[in-house]
């Protein structure tokens, strides 16, 4: 069995919300991430999918300690990064990077490409200025950017090129884990496939490990080795990619899959229409979080939260029917 690069154990991120009534001191909590556990093997891509507001992006930020967790453990190569001092965390940061959805908002508009790529190197890598210049050249080549553009500013690039700069910046410090947070969602469809292929090529070349966060099941099918589905702060299913697309077991995952158009009309799936919207993560439903929308809801679902259980072959499901 391959070595695990990332292990997340019982991770929680709850945000307090101030009472909205005058003179009320009551606080509620948004359970954005509520007791999730999973691992990613070295060189693997785990796709983390779910509708907007399900907590997947918050999970990514908590794993990198961009925001602090409420509870739980985050191990990178068996080292608990929540236990690191700020000095040690700074050193560890080079191992774990993030690529954001909106490359324009995440790049400093006042810096040229060369400065954007050199900046993290000068913080994290003990190399000379000459070596940094060489490395900038190599990375620009790796991500398919012409080195002649080195003096340009982010606004002088297209959306796809800007995302290539974002990826190059993450690569600059030679990381082990990259969290890709909806990295192609803001791009034109025609450019998405190119950037996805680039992300895969870089993984092969540098042995990278990815947590790939997206709402798009087509993208996740293209890029992932395994898939985890989140609903209202909980992981409800984890399985190998092919197993998931052939045999999803959680009613929520089945409903998501039923909405994907299939090219062959003979293979048409019956569309499962879910009732209502996702409930608020402020005081989410008791029991199974999905029970207010589930077509198979039973009495026990309203009070007992289902555990994520291994149903065989690494296919984990949180549902009382399984
Ligand atoms: Fe539906 Fe109950 Fe399973 Fe939740 S536990 S998904 S409500 S059947």
Explain what the structure shows.
The protein is an alpha/beta fold and 322 residues long. The protein has 10 helices and 12 strands. The strands form 2 sheets. Strands 6-7-8-3-9-10-12-11 form an 8-stranded mixed β-sheet, with helices on both faces. It has a 4-stranded antiparallel β-sheet with strand order 2-1-4-5. The model has no long low-confidence stretch (mean pLDDT 92). Iron/sulfur cluster (SF4) binds next to loops.
Brief description of this entry?
With 322 residues, this protein is α/β, with parallel strands linked by helices. The chain has helices at 56-63, 86-92, 103-106, 113-124, 129-142, 159-171, 189-206, 217-223, 241-247, 251-258; strands at residues 4-18, 27-41, 45-49, 71-76, 79-80, 96-99, 177-181, 209-214, 226-231, 234-240, 309-310, 316-317.
Which key features would you list for this structure?
322 residues; alpha/beta; 4-stranded antiparallel beta sheet; 23% strand; binds iron/sulfur cluster
Give a topology summary.
Blueprint lengths: L3 E15 L8 E15 L3 E5 L6 H8 L7 E6 L2 E2 L5 H7 L3 E4 L3 H4 L6 H12 L4 H14 L16 H13 L5 E5 L7 H18 L2 E6 L2 H7 L2 E6 L2 E7 H7 L3 H8 L50 E2 L5 E2 L5
Parallel strand pairs: 3-8, 3-9, 6-7, 7-8
Antiparallel strand pairs: 1-2, 1-4, 4-5, 9-10, 10-12, 11-12
Helix pairs in contact: 4-5, 6-7
The chain binds iron/sulfur cluster.
Iron/sulfur cluster (SF4) binds next to loops.
Order of helices and strands: EEEHEEHEHHHHEHEHEEHHEE
Low-confidence stretches: none
* Bound heterogens, unique: iron/sulfur cluster
Rounded to an integer in angstroms, the radius of gyration calculated over CA atoms is: 21 Å
Helix percentage:
25-40%
Q: How much of the sequence is in beta strands? A: 15-25%
Give the overall average pLDDT: 92
